[in-house]
Amino acid sequence: MFIRGLPLTLAAVALVASGCGDDDGASDDAGALVDERVEVLAIDNAFDPEEIEVEAGTTIVWRNVGRNDHNIIPEDEDAAWRVDTEDFLPGDEAEFRFTEPGATYRYYCSIHGTIDVGMPGTVVVTKPGDS
Description:
The protein has about 130 residues and is mostly beta strands. The chain has 1 helix and 8 strands. The longest helix has 11 residues, at about 10-20. The chain is globular.
């Protein structure tokens, strides 16, 4: 689920109101998922942190706090959590709840590099209690 351009507080309210359903990934034990939110900042030419390890069920909230336009392009460019440039201008935010333990998701800003250089990022998802 994406909520773009809303303050983090409103995004949290929207998630609570929607019931936080597991509509974006599969976990055989949905009751074991955590319900956490972690920020990743897009700062002009870098994601901060560049690599993050989170437990399954964590929602990553990307915030564009720089002066530049950015995007979030997953290594699998058809992934549901892709964010195009027009949806991630300075001041915007986007979010996605990662639910698959053991998965590693690489992404990048195509305006400022490639999957390997420039402005890459990685989300490593662990089993709840393993991180």
